Input
Amino acid sequence: MKIAVRYFTRSGNTKKLADAIAEALGVEAKDLSAPLTEKVDLLFLGSSVYAYGVDGKVRNYLEDNAMRIGKLVNFSTAALISGTYAQISKIAEQNDIPLAKEEFHCRGSFAMLHKGRPNQEDLAQAAEFARSVAGV
Ligand SMILES: Cc1cc2nc3c(=O)[nH]c(=O)nc-3n(C[C@H](O)[C@H](O)[C@H](O)COP(=O)(O)O)c2cc1C
Output
């Protein structure tokens, strides 16, 4: 099974999840400057929200790589909202990308909120989530 891990991050929180997920799956987590060079069975894509929306680069990445994504798996960090699934789901639907029902989300530090998150427990849970979805 071919698996890729990509993420968008501004302050590093989502990258921490991406690295934990990638390590659990034996692949390398890359940012969105790395297009998919071949079709993958699973794309684990990490994102976050900034003033309620995911960054436009996440939409662009999905539009540009839609044909190479067998199934998209969403993961995210945020300070307040409960995840980016709803927003990613809309983009996936508009681009005919199958989206896994399972997702992983945890708090991400922001200003004085949620210091230290994602923490070691979050990372362990993200790794467990990835292994379970990928069946490895
Ligand atoms: C400019 C800005 C706006 C944000 N707006 C929101 C928001 O509307 N809702 C929310 O839950 N978190 C918001 N956050 C918090 C981030 O989603 C959170 O810190 C997240 O973990 C950042 O991920 P990153 O470090 O991977 O970029 C905002 C953060 C920044 C910097």
